[in-house]
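Let's practice the habit of predicting before peeking. Look at the sequence and jot down your guess about where helices and strands might fall. Then scroll down.
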Amino acid sequence: MGAQPGEAAEFTDLESAAMIAALNAAREGVRGANPLVGAAILTADGQIVTGHHGGTGTPHAEVEAITTAHDLDIDLTTATLLVTLEPCDHHGRTGPCTEAILAAEIPSVVFASPDPNPLAAGGGNTLAEAGLTVRSGLCEEDSRALNARWVRSLTEARPFVTAKIAQSLDGAVAAADATSQWITSAESRAHAHEVRSRVDAILVGTGTAVADDPRLNARGPDGIALDDQPRPVVLGTSELPVTSFLALNPNTLHLRTHDVREALDELYAAGARHLLVEGGPTVLGAFFSAGVVDEVFCYQAPLLIGPGRGSVDGLEIGTLSEALQLIPDDTETPAVSRVGPDFLLHFATADPGPDSTGLPESVT
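Done guessing? Here is the structure:
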């Protein structure tokens, strides 16, 4: 059966090229509750067919690659499947990838890194016990780096956290008179609603909830609600106006706390695995300070507002060397792209940040 998972293995140049293709395919996916995963099928004559996981509820990378290979009438009985993450071995929203691989009669599998999720791990051993040649470790460091923040959220048993910022060129989210609708364009808002549609929950503070009376739902450009909707979440101890959209929505979760970690624990217990934070500057600052922001979408409008409200408050950074580092993230889209007249900046957080657990008492 060849080298088994965890044993030293040798790889051909073609296998290395196929794994690189799988890593590139993985980057076409979206970050969130699930890891970024890519797969490549390497045929006996050197052809490479790829697939990737598109997010929660979509086919896994292995299944997408196998489906494409079937469509192309590729003989899988002499092929090698290369995957950036160990094939899953459990029933979630989709069936185990191990079953799909066995059904496809693929004789050889190479995966880059083991699955850190104990609920899904073990696929390599399952395939090896079924008689397949299973090897691991090819491009392992690249695979681990791709999903480092997801692994951190998994290890901490909290939702993966995406922060959204919509600001002017000089970093303001509101003018001096507090007006803020709309700083960014309709195109940026449409993209933000697309992001909303793929998260489990969307959070604002009670200050934003009272001032803006938001619906916190996901809508298309036509204003009609999309099929997939996040759960609205409000953070803070103040009561909501009884006639507000969020108060009238029975699905709204009101987290009556100022503690970010406590809020994340409650959300995780409620089943949320991907949280979008759209709160005001103080709420955003609290999540950044707590070191729990994994991904940032920043919509930068070509406006200069002057005196106004900055996009993030409360970081307590006294000198440049203490600045929170962000890394450009080119998964899903280029790290910098145009959205209408605006720029969309996509970042991952490079450092977990200061060890902070609470919201300032000014968030009411």
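How did you do? The mean pLDDT is 90.
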